[in-house]
Amino acid sequence: MTTTDTSNRPIDTSYATAPTRTITAAGVTFAYRELGPKGGIPVVFFVHLAATLDNWDPRIVDPIAKDHHVITFDNRGVGASTGEVADSVEAMADDAYTFITALGFDTIDVFSFSLGGMVAQALVAKHPELVRKLVLTGTGPAGGKDIDKVAGITYWDILRATLTRSDPKEFLFFNRNATGKAAGKAFVKRLQERTVDRDAPATVKVLQTQLKAIKKWGRSAPADLSKLTQPTLIANGDNDRMVPSVLSEDLHRRITGSELVIYTDSGHGGIFQYHDRFAPVAVEFLAR
């Protein structure tokens, strides 16, 4: 195992300036960023479909990093991480375990969004002792209704975005009404706040491979979520076209003692549209 640090600066409190580091384990060099005070249980962020380090909303990361050691990372074969992109959710969970244990952690909290939430569930199923608390946003369970339709929606919205010279996330994550359009543009603008040391964008191959993994997850046998004993916070918008909002309610019903927050007039990116309301909820949940 080897680690390299691309900066001698102290740990940052702003995601826009947190240096990119690497750690090599099991033949893969993982790119990651960390910020916030070290010590205590770190919060590891599990990213969405075809996403890199630069896809996390600083208005979510920074409030959590104020009092927590936050770590974000690129999946294998994505962004600045080496290797072949994983073709199943379970393989991504194995990679996450490799990365987390290489950093020397035996207990973490997980913050996840979309595909990241699926990976988080697979990780907890295999290594329940590793995860203390779980935040699942914009996601659904294995075998969840219509998860296997994500690919069709994604390709359609990429086409719509291309025709209007927009970022696909504006279509995929937000409603196409006045409120949603404004929230989408504001979100995309926030992702540009980091101006140095930006990550390589995900390739078409990454998108295609991860979409196949999501389809497999949607068509797999339902997991027994009654075994999941970690305190769990679930959040989504009320009109998620990518991972239907009813699946957040499904997760809530099946995970004993879980908490559910649904934001009205918002889509897949409800937590980003309502970051000013959601970030304090996540902070309070993790601090409990």
From TrEMBL:
<protein>
    <submittedName>
        <fullName>Pimeloyl-ACP methyl ester carboxylesterase</fullName>
    </submittedName>
</protein>
<dbReference type="InterPro" id="IPR000073">
    <property type="entry name" value="AB_hydrolase_1"/>
</dbReference>
<dbReference type="GO" id="GO:0003824">
    <property type="term" value="F:catalytic activity"/>
</dbReference>
<dbReference type="InterPro" id="IPR050471">
    <property type="entry name" value="AB_hydrolase"/>
</dbReference>
<feature type="domain" description="AB hydrolase-1">
    <location>
        <begin position="43"/>
        <end position="272"/>
    </location>
</feature>
<dbReference type="InterPro" id="IPR029058">
    <property type="entry name" value="AB_hydrolase_fold"/>
</dbReference>
<dbReference type="Pfam" id="PF00561">
    <property type="entry name" value="Abhydrolase_1"/>
</dbReference>
